[in-house]
Model the fold of this input.
Amino acid sequence: MSNKEGDKLNPNDERRPINLDELRRRAICKKRYGRATLTIRRWGGLGGLLADDKLGQALTAFRAGEGSAEEVAWAFVRARVESHSPTFRWKDASLDG
Done:
Protein backbone atom coordinates (compact mmCIF):
# COMPACT_ATOMS: atom_id res chain seq x y z
CA MET A 1 0.00 0.00 0.00
CA SER A 2 1.28 3.44 -0.93
CA ASN A 3 1.02 6.75 0.87
CA LYS A 4 0.14 8.67 -2.29
CA GLU A 5 -2.98 10.81 -2.17
CA GLY A 6 -4.72 8.85 -4.96
CA ASP A 7 -4.24 5.50 -3.22
CA LYS A 8 -6.55 6.14 -0.26
CA LEU A 9 -9.06 3.43 0.50
CA ASN A 10 -12.70 4.32 0.76
CA PRO A 11 -13.74 3.76 4.41
CA ASN A 12 -17.08 2.38 3.17
CA ASP A 13 -15.29 -0.44 1.29
CA GLU A 14 -14.71 -2.69 4.26
CA ARG A 15 -13.28 -6.11 3.66
CA ARG A 16 -15.20 -8.67 5.61
CA PRO A 17 -13.91 -12.19 6.14
CA ILE A 18 -16.13 -14.93 4.81
CA ASN A 19 -16.68 -18.29 6.41
CA LEU A 20 -16.21 -21.69 4.79
CA ASP A 21 -19.93 -22.15 4.10
CA GLU A 22 -20.05 -18.83 2.23
CA LEU A 23 -16.96 -19.77 0.21
CA ARG A 24 -18.57 -23.09 -0.76
CA ARG A 25 -21.79 -21.29 -1.73
CA ARG A 26 -19.87 -18.89 -3.96
CA ALA A 27 -18.04 -21.78 -5.66
CA ILE A 28 -21.34 -23.15 -6.99
CA CYS A 29 -23.69 -21.39 -9.38
CA LYS A 30 -26.95 -22.29 -11.05
CA LYS A 31 -27.39 -21.31 -14.69
CA ARG A 32 -30.31 -21.54 -17.04
CA TYR A 33 -29.70 -23.28 -20.35
CA GLY A 34 -32.85 -23.06 -22.39
CA ARG A 35 -35.54 -24.56 -20.18
CA ALA A 36 -33.02 -26.49 -18.09
CA THR A 37 -31.03 -25.51 -15.01
CA LEU A 38 -27.42 -26.57 -14.48
CA THR A 39 -25.50 -26.55 -11.21
CA ILE A 40 -21.88 -25.69 -12.04
CA ARG A 41 -18.73 -25.57 -9.92
CA ARG A 42 -17.00 -22.24 -10.66
CA TRP A 43 -13.68 -23.09 -9.04
CA GLY A 44 -12.10 -25.58 -6.72
CA GLY A 45 -12.17 -29.28 -6.94
CA LEU A 46 -9.28 -29.28 -9.42
CA GLY A 47 -8.07 -32.57 -8.00
CA GLY A 48 -11.45 -34.05 -8.80
CA LEU A 49 -11.30 -32.61 -12.30
CA LEU A 50 -7.90 -34.10 -12.99
CA ALA A 51 -9.01 -37.43 -11.55
CA ASP A 52 -11.94 -37.45 -13.99
CA ASP A 53 -11.18 -40.22 -16.50
CA LYS A 54 -12.76 -38.54 -19.51
CA LEU A 55 -11.04 -35.20 -18.91
CA GLY A 56 -7.69 -36.91 -18.37
CA GLN A 57 -8.15 -38.99 -21.52
CA ALA A 58 -9.11 -35.91 -23.54
CA LEU A 59 -6.05 -34.02 -22.30
CA THR A 60 -3.74 -36.96 -23.03
CA ALA A 61 -5.17 -37.34 -26.54
CA PHE A 62 -4.84 -33.59 -27.19
CA ARG A 63 -1.22 -33.55 -26.05
CA ALA A 64 -0.47 -36.50 -28.33
CA GLY A 65 -2.09 -34.69 -31.26
CA GLU A 66 -4.91 -37.22 -31.40
CA GLY A 67 -7.67 -35.07 -29.93
CA SER A 68 -9.12 -31.64 -30.46
CA ALA A 69 -9.42 -28.61 -28.22
CA GLU A 70 -13.20 -28.95 -28.52
CA GLU A 71 -13.04 -32.45 -27.05
CA VAL A 72 -11.04 -31.10 -24.11
CA ALA A 73 -13.56 -28.27 -23.67
CA TRP A 74 -16.48 -30.73 -23.64
CA ALA A 75 -14.72 -32.95 -21.10
CA PHE A 76 -14.00 -29.91 -18.91
CA VAL A 77 -17.61 -28.70 -19.08
CA ARG A 78 -18.94 -32.15 -18.24
CA ALA A 79 -16.57 -32.35 -15.26
CA ARG A 80 -17.69 -28.92 -13.97
CA VAL A 81 -21.44 -29.58 -14.22
CA GLU A 82 -22.39 -31.15 -10.91
CA SER A 83 -26.07 -31.68 -11.67
CA HIS A 84 -28.82 -30.60 -14.04
CA SER A 85 -32.57 -30.61 -14.28
CA PRO A 86 -34.35 -33.44 -16.13
CA THR A 87 -35.05 -31.10 -19.07
CA PHE A 88 -31.34 -30.84 -19.91
CA ARG A 89 -29.93 -33.13 -22.62
CA TRP A 90 -26.18 -33.33 -23.30
CA LYS A 91 -26.84 -34.29 -26.94
CA ASP A 92 -28.69 -30.98 -27.48
CA ALA A 93 -26.06 -28.84 -25.72
CA SER A 94 -23.69 -26.52 -27.52
CA LEU A 95 -20.42 -24.99 -26.34
CA ASP A 96 -21.47 -21.75 -28.03
CA GLY A 97 -24.59 -21.24 -26.20
About this structure: The mean pLDDT is 81. The CA atoms of residues 19 and 32 lie 27 Å apart. Residues 69-80 form the longest helix (12 residues).
